[in-house]
Design goal:
With about 850 residues, this protein is mainly alpha-helical. Helix content is about 55%, strand content about 0%. A two-stranded antiparallel sheet has the order 1-2. A two-stranded antiparallel ribbon has the order 3-4. It holds the Pfam family TIMELESS_C. It is found in: Nucleus.
């Protein structure tokens, strides 16, 4: 177009033909649509370092001059669509505009440009404080829901949601701060703002029915198009409202209702569980939010959700009708009927000028039961399916999924939410996915921690978030089981009838999920106090304790013939490394809280008393904490005080004969799995076993030689570990675990997601094998390591391997114990292993 050609691709204020105001009404030009389309096309591919078109549009004040007026005054769908699309591009957070390839110290975008973009976002947020602007967006969302949802309409709905999301995340203009100071902190989100604009924006959106639209959108079969945007919106709505504070407000509201309406007391009183009342913690971890819906190549967005907030007093939110007539269009009667239930629970509020923090808190508190009953189940279920099916795992999407579970699961038992509203949540597949993802994040952090210049905070947050999600899931499950067990309907029933409840069956499944139990031991063993906090360590210990409680209760009620032996599981805690972790967590006994301290002392009691390994408690770290507890007369329960006294007496009795066992060197350091010495012996080409898992005679001979050497060196147990992992993968490939994937979630989910299956070193003994160059060379020769010095700490079983190949690889490591085979050998074609005589003297040969 001429207006672009004349300005070398940069628009000029006098040449952009969008429209103009005339007598307080905005009129579009004939070229408005073509102009918007061209701007959208060009802003999508502009130079990411200079952003000339974006800066020119900002300088022209196109937001207030044209885009906002078009949004309010124009009713042409194609123009509105292009306008919304351009608004999305312009309101992308500044963080996402910085090229991801650049390190923070080398960012090529000048600070003045960052300042310009930040100020524009502040202006955009201020523009949307006008109720007419948000009403225009909400009305178009409502209009879309009264018409057939074509692919184009679904895309437009997501565009409108993305626009609101961008505006909610946009910063507020700093207050009481000089321009010089502002330039020093150009990207700071809410650095010097009071949050009043965010409160006003949330209040206006709720008053205009945006909450009802969110719930309605989750009832459509096309919800997969916008569920990720919805969870981002919900995260931003609750950003300043920690979950523990919202719990207090819900409790206060319940108590108020109980005192005023005795007949409703049974439905509103808060349910207290022995663990739930003490586990508060953080309302949610920082989550990484990537704007996956915006076609931007350089995106990084990691807001903290939610931030700390002061406790609020409840207020009575006046409910009024919006007075909007229901639209009656063809093809909408079914959907209106489907949404009838959720609409009946919707509440409306008056638009007020300056809502207080407690006003908004109360608004969000009232939305929680509505969301839990009408939207949470659908949102969790849809996100779960998307994460399993997508080819590329996006960290931000996984983080939002974990945050959603972490934040809202605690409210369900508190509100006594009926189990039927959580049918997509209380499923074993979801817990298995949480386990698989936590293991994946564990491995990723181990790799990233070896890169000294990398910021580990995002990866630490994901580690923490994965643990808290599992913890909240298990805690809610245990609370529901306890509630049902104590209810009148369950007391008179037999044990078999109890099993009919989904939550009881789910809890019994816990007995078979070995990967989940081992996950916490793995996290404890790999805990590194240099770059991981004691708060994170306490979360692991707390989550593990919740699991142990659930396992103990499930064991007592289990009808399975193959009962789980919890004592055998607890024996794995009887090692100095694990006890050292518990000693580290006990250092903060004054601030840990009762539940965390109980979690620590319970395991110490199991190890020292039940398993008669009191010597492991005579660790300098643990003894020092015991002495501090005594010195300050810290109040503990009688059992823990007796344990401390017993350990101290045992230490004093054995002091003279076992002094050598108490120096700092007695606690073994976790071996660094990634520090293999690179010597010429292992400078071989990459293994081709991943692509072609057949071996030549020379390769088979070398594998046999390496295996013999390792057995002679005492690695038989570790070889059995690899062999058993191969057999489990073989079983998964043959479909042995169909409908019972929880028995081996890592192998089954890796297969389902078409990914290589990690062979996880759960114990120190298994991990020690990966410190051996000879052992790693064997894995490399078998195709389980891409190279001797591969960058991932865990070996991997290639996805392409067939069941026959997996079984043949297991045979390489020695005779297979029939007890380790849980599949029918007749399902395999004939597998012959021809191992030639060993003609080599060194693995370097051949």
């Amino acid at each position: 177009m001429d207006w672009m050609t004349l300005t070398v691709g940069i628009p000029c204020l006098s040449h952009v033909p969008l429209g103009m105001f005339y007598r307080d009404k905005y009129y579009i030009s004939d070229e408005c649509l073509a102009c918007l389309s061209e701007i959208n096309a060009k802003i999508n591919c502009e130079d990411p370092n200079t952003r000339p078109l974006r800066r020119a549009l900002i300088f022209m004040d196109i937001l207030n001059k044209d885009l906002i007026p078009i949004l309010i005054h124009v009713n042409q769908p194609s123009i509105i669509r292009s306008t919304v699309e351009l608004l999305i591009w312009l309101t992308i957070p500044v963080d996402c505009l910085i090229p991801a390839r650049e390190m923070p110290a080398d960012i090529s975008m000048p600070k003045f440009m960052v300042h310009e973009f930040t100020q524009f976002l502040c202006s955009a947020k201020e523009a949307f404080l006008d109720p007419n602007v948000t009403q225009a967006v909400v009305d178009r969302l409502s209009f879309c829901l009264t018409h057939p949802l074509t692919t184009r309409n679904c895309e437009f709905i997501n565009y409108l949601l993305l626009l609101i999301r961008n505006v909610l995340y946009a910063p507020e203009r700093h207050i009481n701060i000089t321009e010089t100071e502002e330039r020093m902190h150009p990207v700071g989100h809410d650095t010097a703002s009071d949050g009043s604009q965010q409160r006003r924006l949330i209040w206006v959106l709720f008053a205009q029915g945006f909450d009802q639209i969110l719930i309605s959108l989750l009832t459509y079969s096309q919800k997969g198009e916008w569920v990720m945007t919805i969870v981002q919106l919900i995260a931003l709505l609750y950003q300043r409202h920690p979950a523990d504070k919202m719990q207090k407000l819900l409790d206060r509201k319940a108590n108020t209702n109980c005192s005023s309406k005795d007949d409703d007391a049974s439905n509103t009183c808060q349910y207290f569980d022995s663990t739930n009342s003490t586990i508060t913690g953080s309302s949610a971890e920082d989550i990484g939010l990537r704007f996956a819906n915006c076609p931007e190549t350089s995106r990084k967005y990691d807001p903290s959700v939610p931030m700390q907030d002061n406790d609020r007093n409840g207020v009575n939110v006046q409910r009024i009708s919006k007075g909007k007539e229901e639209k009656k269009s063809k093809g909408t009667s079914h959907k209106q009927k489907q949404n009838k239930h959720s609409e009946s629970h919707h509440f409306k509020t008056k638009i007020i000028c300056d809502p207080s923090e407690e006003d908004v808190s109360q608004l969000l508190v009232e939305f929680i039961p509505i969301f839990l009953q009408n939207g949470f189940n659908a949102l969790v279920g849809e996100l779960h399916q998307k994460l399993i099916q997508q080819d590329v795992l996006v960290h931000s999407e996984k983080s939002f999924f974990l945050w959603l579970i972490t934040y809202f699961m605690r409210f369900a038992p508190q509100l006594k939410q009926d189990e039927k509203y959580l049918k997509n949540v209380f499923v074993i597949d979801l817990l298995c996915h949480l386990t698989w993802d936590a293991i994946h994040q564990t491995e990723e952090f181990e790799v990233k921690s070896l890169q000294p210049s990398l910021d580990l905070n995002p990866f630490l947050r994901r580690l923490h978030l994965g643990i808290t999600a599992i913890s909240e899931f298990l805690q809610a499950l245990d609370a529901y089981c306890c509630t049902l067990a104590e209810s009148k309907q369950t007391i008179d029933n037999s044990r078999e009838n109890k099993k009919q409840s989904n939550v009881f069956q789910l809890r019994e499944y816990l007995l078979a999920i070995n990967d989940l139990r081992q996950l916490f031991l793995l996290r404890l063993r790999l805990f590194n106090p240099i770059n991981q906090s004691r708060r994170y360590l306490c979360e692991i210990i707390k989550a593990n304790h919740i699991l142990l409680l659930s396992l103990e209760r499930a064991t007592k009620l289990s009808t399975s013939q193959k009962s789980f032996d919890i004592s055998e599981h607890l024996k794995q805690f009887c090692c100095r490394t694990i006890m050292a972790r518990y000693g580290t967590a006990l250092r903060d006994f004054k601030t840990n809280g009762p539940f965390v301290n109980d979690s620590i002392f319970t395991v110490l009691h199991h190890v020292g008393i039940d398993l008669d390994q009191v010597d492991l408690l005579c660790d300098p770290v643990i003894l020092h904490n015991f002495s501090q507890i005594w010195a300050c007369e810290f109040k503990l329960c009688e059992d823990w005080e007796d344990l401390i006294e017993y350990v101290v007496q045992k230490f004093m009795q054995d002091y003279r004969t076992k002094t050598d066992g108490f120096d700092e060197g007695s606690v073994p350091r976790i071996p660094d799995q990634m520090q293999d010495k690179q010597i010429s012996l292992y400078n071989h080409t990459e293994s081709t076993a991943c692509e072609n898992p057949s071996f030549t005679e020379a390769e088979l001979a070398e594998i046999q030689f390496l295996k013999t050497q390792l057995v002679a060196s005492g690695f038989q147990q570790q070889l059995c570990w690899i062999q058993k992992s191969l057999l489990v993968a073989c079983s998964a490939r043959l479909g042995t675990y169909v409908n019972e994937e929880f028995r081996n979630p890592v192998a089954c989910l890796s297969l389902k997601m078409r990914l290589p299956c990690p062979i996880i070193p759960w114990t120190e003994v298994q991990a020690s094998a990966l410190d051996s160059n000879l052992f790693r060379l064997l894995l490399h020769r078998m195709g389980l390591l891409t190279s001797v010095a591969q960058t991932v700490p865990f070996p991997r079983i290639p996805f392409a391997w067939s069941a026959e190949t997996l079984y043949r690889a297991a045979l390489f490591l020695g005779p297979v114990d029939s007890q380790n085979i849980d599949f029918d050998l007749q399902c395999l074609t004939k597998v012959e292993l021809q191992v030639p005589p060993c003609h080599i003297n060194s693995p370097a040969d051949g």
